[in-house]
Amino acid sequence: MASARAQQIAAHLNCPKGMLHGQVAIITGSGQGIGAETARLFANEGAKVVVSDIDGAKASQVAEEIKKNGGSAIAIPGDMLDDNYINELVKKSADFGSGKIHIIVNNAGYTWDGVIHKTTDKQWDTILALHNTQPFKLVRAAAPYFRVKDGEPRSIVNVSSTSGLHGNAGQANYALAKAGVVGLTKTIAKEWGPAFGVRANTVAFGHIATRLTAAKEEGAFVTTPDGQKVALGIPQAQKAGREAGKDAFKDIPLGRPGTATEAAGAVLALASPLMSSYITGQTLSVTGGRNM
Q: Long-range CB contacts (< 8 A, 24+ apart) of 182-189?
């Protein structure tokens, strides 16, 4: 007799509705960039997607686009640094999923760079809260929907960075936070895997073409809860120096940055019970071969 796991895989293989059919997925920071692409890919694979983003207009736009294309989505905008929002996000997501949540993708975040001797306490505390404390609080709040034995797959994908694996000048706060993501992920895998079958994995992105790697002069920014604007991106002179001439991206074997869609595909691979049902506690580096 086939095992329950084999039966589940067979069901997915024979299901034209997608690898994530019927699963409810919270994707934070999904109003744009990698998060939005992840939301679209998940919806294409049959997931019921919760679009979470601080920008309500962008969150609604992604959700509406998914629905127009025949998918299922709801926008639940809010600030991940607000504990009340986290509780609201979990409650509304469970209501949307008829009492169930299957996937969390902790993707929301940004960089607030500074060399060590000039980094302020506010820079430090904000980045660690956004990338470590609040994802932990989201997972903790969602525990009643993951610590269950209903035979359905549960998966958590936490987004890290090669800055967390290797460090990066000017990013002490971000590097520490993204290294912490790896430890949090492994702990979830060890605590919730044995009894409940919950998988938890990390995806560490290298150079992906997003607003965080665009020229700072393009003007992208985020606003902190107290109204301070944080410029995003890499200064043009520094960016041009890295990417100029025939040696552009010479340290990346594939010779180019990754796209947001390619990054989202890696998240989908880790979340899918078809593609990664026996993978947990691991960090997948998505770098085009850099740092291999």
A: 182/283, 184/132, 184/135, 184/136, 184/139, 184/158, 185/156, 185/158, 185/281, 185/283, 186/281, 188/139, 188/156, 189/280, 189/281
Strand-strand pairing, 283-286 and 199-205: parallel
Q: What angle do CA 48, 150, 75 make, to 5 degrees?
A: 20
pTM above 0.70, yes or no: yes
Q: Is 110 a catalytic residue?
A: no
Q: From the CB of residue 179, how many other CB atoms can be counted at a distance below 10 Å?
A: 19
Lowest mean pLDDT among 32-36, 119-123, 242-246: 242-246
| Sign of the alpha-carbon dihedral angle for 209, 154, 95, 13 | positive
| Structure confidence by residue, pLDDT tens digits, 101-130 | 999 999 999 999 999 999 999 999 999 999
Q: Specify the DSSP class assigned to residue 261.
A: H
pLDDT digits (tens, 9 = 90+) for 257-292: 999 999 999 999 999 998 999 999 999 999 999 998
Residue type, 39: A
Above 60 in pLDDT, residue 5?
A: no
Query: Which CATH code is given to the segment(s) 4-209+259-285?
Result: 3.40.50.720
- The contacts of residue 85 (CB under 8 Å, 6+ apart) are 78, 79
Q: Considering only CA atoms, which of 127, 117, 144 is closest in space to residue 178?
A: 127
Q: What share of the chain in percent tops pLDDT 90?
A: 79
Contact between 148 and 190 under an 8 Å Cβ cutoff? The reply is no
Distance in angstroms (rounded) separating the CA atoms of residues 155 and 276: 10
Considering 85, 145, 174, 278, which one is annotated as catalytic?
A: 174
